[in-house]
Amino acid sequence: MSALAVLCLLTAVTLALGYANKARCTGPEFNEWGRSGPDYQMRSYRDVCYSDVQNLWVGRDIDRHVFPYVHGGIDPDGSLWGGVVEYPVLTGVLMWLGALFVDTDAGFLLSSALLMAPFGLAVAWWLGRLSRWRALLWALGPPLVLYAFHNWDLPVVASAVAAVYVMHRWRAPLARRSTVAAVLLGLGFALKVYPAIFVLPLALHVFTEGGRDWRGAVRVAGAAAGTAVLVNVPFALAGFQGWAASFEFQSRRQVDISTNSVWYWGFRHWTGDDGFQDAMGIISPGLVLASFAIACWVGWLRYEKTGSYPWVQVSAAMLCGFLLLHKVHSPQYTLWLLPFFVLVQVRWGWIAAYFAADFAMCTGIFRWLHLNNAGEPSGVHDGFAAQALMIGVWGRAALLVGLFVAFLATRTTIDDREDTPAPSPAPEGTRVTG
């Protein structure tokens, strides 16, 4: 059996464990809406088996099999109706497909897991081809057990990893590889937005590799933007109000317990103030953009020193800036970062520490929510749940700062000697010496 086959088999086992972990919250009883019982909410927090997949079965018309966006909208209080979900359109379609032939939240979890599992296996195969044995971090990583089926993130992670794979393993000229990679990142935007931030470092990479190739950089940006527009236009035409509602929902989202970011835990006593929420709407995206600019600038300095723009490392650093400074930091976002632990040569200590902090945050937040809902003492001095949560939140935040620097300072694990892409044709008039 080949190493890649073993890698995919190990990933399948880990995905099965991830499903079993979430399935603990399903059944054994179901009410008239197909919601698990008894005491679904209490069990999901107490037993740390909560998933957005199961939770959103009720409340987004998923249980009614309503096709998303076309007939819905958003109320003044922020409530979504008519099949609208708070995610980009391709994720909404995946959610609808997962609900087609089921009538309980348990069936929805299972069908969604079966729908997303191939994406997790594809990521394992691509990472194995790119970074060999280091891909075991994906196949056996604790985050895959915790979050593979927490939300609909495996497809979007696959789109980002596929873009790296195309750039480094497809035997084609740079122009073709970069265009296809940009299309994949555009599809990622239509799944969960975040891959769109990698378009800029990819464009800078093409610009520098092509000898100040402005056309190539613009082509990358245009291919990504064009793909995102083409995917979204049919939904906007079919039901503009419902399509726009998903974006409006996210723009209205406030810093609260559901966001679980440093902004909430650092300023939780201010979150009830409208002025604070308005300020966060400016400060958070402003700092995110500043982190992007710093990462791209450091990447440029490395290009001037080495002659190659480190687009993968810059992308990893930009993601760290986003995770740290964005208003929302959902637990499953660790899946977004996990492939970069495979692709970039950061020290094992960073990875082990991040896994530990992430596990503490994941278990701590749900146990803390359970204690709060049950009316039991939940302060830092009352028990380990709040302590684990604080260790996780602030440990993760400190590690993201360190990883931002570490990613930019090191090399990738990608061996470009294997399946080296065909060189791009020299521009007309360029002198080629031998």
Automatic annotation (TrEMBL):
Is this entry keyworded Lipid metabolism?
no
Q: Does the keyword Lipoprotein apply?
A: no
Example GO CC term: the record gives: plasma membrane
Instruction: Tell me the organism.
Output: Saccharopolyspora rhizosphaerae
Q: Which residues cross the membrane?
A: 80-101, 108-127, 147-167, 179-200, 220-244, 282-303, 309-328, 348-369, 389-409
Q: What is the residue range of the signal peptide feature? A: 1-18
Assigned keywords, A-Z: Cell membrane, Membrane, Signal, Transferase, Transmembrane, Transmembrane helix
Family statement: Belongs to the glycosyltransferase 87 family.
Membrane topology reported for the UniProt record = Multi-pass membrane protein
Q: What lineage does the source organism belong to? A: Bacteria, Bacillati, Actinomycetota, Actinomycetes, Pseudonocardiales
**Which compartments does it reside in?**
Cell membrane
Identification of the protein by name: DUF2029 domain-containing protein
Just give the chief location class. Answer: membrane
- Pfam families, per this entry? GT87
Recorded GO terms, molecular function? hexosyltransferase activity
